[in-house]
Amino acid sequence: MNCLLQYSLRAAQSVKTGRPVVLRKSADLASCTESGSYEQGWIVFVDTDNDAVVDLSEHILRVQGPLAGEHRLVGTTDVATYIAFSSDGFARQTDGSLQSGTLTLDLCHNRSEKNTIVIKPTGRTGVEKVSCS
């Protein structure tokens, strides 16, 4: 499961469009949602107007449907709704400012184990195995 998210993150980070590329929660795989967590699915798109919301004129690069089973994928406050990368590959907010600190998404497999997907401000990603609390 974490491979799917890492693949999406790397795809978002590597696209050279001159515009931010956003990974955002999506319940219907066509539009953005504020509710729920990432396990419902997500979309990766070129955000030409810097609002972190996919519009009809914006190109969707990748979609990922719901995760199987009882997996939960939850982002920390800074990435609870979306993750944006600028054309230089850095994690940024839609206003262009750098994301501050390390961003994390927790992928819980069961009650005792989870993987934490870590995104550094430079855009570099990694995975850490930890115990679920």
What key phrases describe this protein's structure?
globular; mainly beta; minor pseudopilin epsh fold; four-stranded antiparallel beta sheet; 133 residues
Can you walk through the features of this model?
- The chain is mainly beta.
- The protein has a single domain, classed as 3-Layer(bab) Sandwich (minor pseudopilin epsh fold), CATH 3.55.40.10.
- Helices cover 10% and strands 32% of the residues.
- It is built from one helix and nine strands.
- It has one helix at residues 2-14; strands at residues 21-25, 42-46, 60-64, 72-75, 82-85, 91-92, 103-108, 114-119, 125-130.
- The protein has a five-stranded antiparallel beta sheet, covered by helices on one side. A four-stranded antiparallel beta sheet has the order 4-7-8-9, covered by helices on one side.
- The chain is globular, with a radius of gyration of 14 Å.
- The mean pLDDT is 79.
Quick synopsis:
The chain is mainly beta and 133 residues long. Helix content is 10%, strand content 32%.
